[in-house]
Fold this protein.
Amino acid sequence: MQQKGGALLGQGKYGCTFEPAPRCAGGRVFKQIDGFPAVGKVALEDDGDELRVGKAIMALPLAAQYFALPSAGCKPQTPVLDPDAKGCRVLTESGSGTRFSMLIMPAAGQQLLKYGLQLDLLADTYRRIFVHLLEGGIIYQRAGYVHNDIHMGNVLVDDNDVARYIDFGMAFQIKDVRKWSDSNLGTTFHPKLIWQAPEVHAWRMMLNGLRLEAGVAQLKEFNPEYTQLEHQYPTRMSALAALTDLMRKSKAAVQKDGGSFVQIYGKRFDSWRLGICMWFLWSDLLKWGPFTQTPLYGERDLIRRVLGGLTDFDPRTRFSMTDALRLLEPKNRLLVG
């Protein structure tokens, strides 16, 4: 079925905005550019609360250096092929006045996932990107927010090797959390989603009546990285031991609605998410032969310590973003003065 709605409203930053919002499924929405799909993802963050949160984060000091939002009414920054998404099969269409953003990644850089494939470049920029993302995380957390959806698809790196967080559709403010659903975390156990903090998985196991032993076994089955982390950091508690102790000793916070649990540990959700992103990239660098000849290799003990702190299975002992930045760059402008 040919696209009927969703006229192109504007382009800018890193996306295109359509109005009214089309709902599409199946096939490629945009054609390929140089053999790669022009659209990396689709999002609804230009709609309702998601846009409100994004705009609030963009209003923070230094925001443009650390975050990006799709914008409407801007002049095109890249050639856009098939802008009306012709050939997309429409499921439903929202009413007039609603907006839908399609994120055209080349406009503001490429996803960290793809950027990280350039290992020679990554070896030069890894430390700088790591510090920069920690700074951004500290800025929005000091404003009371948790991003809650950090992964290598939600970080864009531009031509100047500057990394920016995108997609604040899952973000929440700690002070507003009253129950688990306020944090957009849902209740279903998804063992494949390794970027979700272990305690989030544990909470969902409890809500679904799943024993921690069985749930952690599933996590390890789908994500061998859990076992790798246990082997790399043998002096800390295993995933199972950490989560068992956490859920047993946090009974006051582990209530049915989960509001207190999120308020206490919510900021450490982002620590895990960013830590896993940078751990994946670091693991790729370690497998790359020429890496041993780079300056970054000489800092491997420090990087290993920081990554270990951010990927601790237990949020009670996991590094905050401030903890990590203090180790990586103790005289950073966000830590002094």
Observations:
- The longest strand covers residues 7-12.
